[in-house]
């Protein structure tokens, strides 16, 4: 089995050290809320996140105090893996650790950070994030604060709901599989004030490289 590294150092930590570390203790609220599907404040754990990707976002000119030109508010992408650590009562507890290496079939939790740095209220906030290389979206995992989620299979030029994405296979149109998704988009249902920040999340699974065994 081949391991795909996304940073220089491997992931190695004893279960007891993970469970008792201050960083892990401060993250319990986030992991519990994320696992249950409830929103959570991840700002307390931002210092422990790695694999950040920064994309350029264009600036716009002021238009009567409100930004009317659609722009991508994406700022950072954080990659983590969930592990189960035995608790003191014998039951396993979920923890998130930076995803330094990803094996074929492993699932990664991605947290997308977005922000309105324009100084103007954004009437229609849009966050667009490309899926990382060799990672396939896990259906049903993209969530955001009051957002409509859609996907692209053409490099981000157009977006649609998952069931509306079609590919022509031998002259027959079929629903595109998640492996063909190139981007995910969140459109918030309310304006975003100047200086506001937020988070959206999705999960993706590592797919084999060309010629690499599936497991």
Structure description:
This protein has helices spanning 15-20, 22-25, 28-36, and strands at 3-5, 66-67, 74-86, 92-98, 101-103, 107-115, 121-122, 126-130, 135-137, 147-152, 166-169, 172-175, 183-188, 197-206. By secondary structure, the protein is mainly beta. The chain has one domain (3-206). The model is unreliable at 1-64 (pLDDT under 50).
Assembly type: single chain
| Beta strand % | 35-45%
Calculate Rg over CA atoms.
Answer: 19 Å
**Helix content, binned percent:** under 10%
Number of domains: 1
Number of helices: 3
What is the end-to-end distance? Answer: 6 Å
Question: How would a textbook summarize the main sheet?
Answer: 5 strands, antiparallel
Order of helices and strands: EHHHEEEEEEEEEEEEE
Sheet/helix structural class: mainly beta
Q: What's the total count of β strands?
A: 14
Instruction: Give the spatial strand order of the biggest sheet.
Output: 4-3-6-14-9
Shape field: flat
- Average residue pLDDT: 76
Question: What ranges have pLDDT less than 50 throughout 5 or more consecutive residues?
Answer: 1-64
In short:
This protein is mainly beta.
Write the layout of secondary structure elements.
Elements lengths: L2 E3 L9 H6 L1 H4 L2 H9 L29 E2 L6 E13 L5 E7 L2 E3 L3 E9 L5 E2 L3 E5 L4 E3 L9 E6 L13 E4 L2 E4 L7 E6 L8 E10 L9
Parallel strand pairs: 2-7
Antiparallel strand pairs: 1-5, 3-4, 3-6, 6-14, 8-13, 9-14, 10-13, 11-12
Features:
single chain, 215 residues, mainly beta, five-stranded antiparallel β-sheet, three-stranded antiparallel β-sheet, 14 strands, disordered N terminus
